[in-house]
């Protein structure tokens, strides 16, 4: 499974919002500059994230984007579902009628396990977990 640019960039942007949580809203041009994403593309991603209820926009000269919920309340599965769509490995895992061999296929069983493992990981990690990981990484880089 290969993740789309939309998911990779959208996740980077929402992590930056999570790291900034509680401070002033972040403007798209600031996020775009720090994440090396075009402003136009980031605006599209923020629209998707806002429609999903993950971020909210603040209007005005000091406006921008903020998380709609606390970082510990947003699971990666929500971000992925909104940006990438439902995680699936192969069509027959979601719809047995897709393949006439689905009932007896041992490979399908493996794809089911892979899909469930991906879902479990995405559901077990929150944005706060990623913020904490980033802080730990920065701290370990400064230690001698």
List the helices and strands and how they pair.
Layout: H1 5-19, H2 28-35, H3 39-51, E1 55-58, E2 64-67, H4 76-83, H5 91-94, H6 106-124, H7 127-142
Antiparallel strand pairs: 1-2
Helix pairs in contact: 1-3, 1-4, 1-7, 2-3, 4-6
Total individual domains: 1
Supply the CATH superfamily name. Answer: Winged helix-like DNA-binding domain superfamily/Winged helix DNA-binding domain
Query: How are helices and strands ordered from N to C?
Result: HHHEEHHHH
Percent range for helical residues? 55-70%
Q: Can you characterise this structure?
A:
A hairpin with a 5-residue loop joins strand 1 and strand 2. 58% of the residues lie in helices and 6% in strands. The relative contact order is 0.15. By secondary structure, the protein is mostly helical. The protein starts with a helix and ends with a helix. The chain is elongated. It has helices spanning 5-19, 28-35, 39-51, 76-83, 91-94, 106-124, 127-142; strands at 55-58, 64-67.
């Amino acid at each position: 499974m290969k993740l789309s640019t939309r998911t990779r960039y959208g996740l980077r942007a929402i992590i930056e919002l999570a790291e900034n949580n509680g401070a002033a809203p972040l403007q798209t041009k600031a996020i775009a500059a720090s994440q090396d994403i075009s402003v136009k593309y980031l605006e599209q991603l923020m629209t998707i994230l806002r429609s999903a209820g993950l971020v909210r926009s603040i209007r005005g000269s000091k406006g921008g984007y903020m998380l709609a919920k606390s970082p510990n309340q947003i699971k990666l599965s929500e971000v992925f579902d909104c940006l990438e769509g439902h995680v699936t490995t192969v069509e027959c895992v979601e719809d047995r009628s897709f393949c006439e061999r689905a009932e007896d296929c041992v490979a399908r069983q493996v794809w089911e396990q892979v899909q469930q493992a991906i879902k479990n990981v995405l559901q077990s990690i929150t944005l706060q977990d990623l913020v904490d990981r980033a802080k730990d990484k920065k701290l370990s880089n400064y230690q001698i």
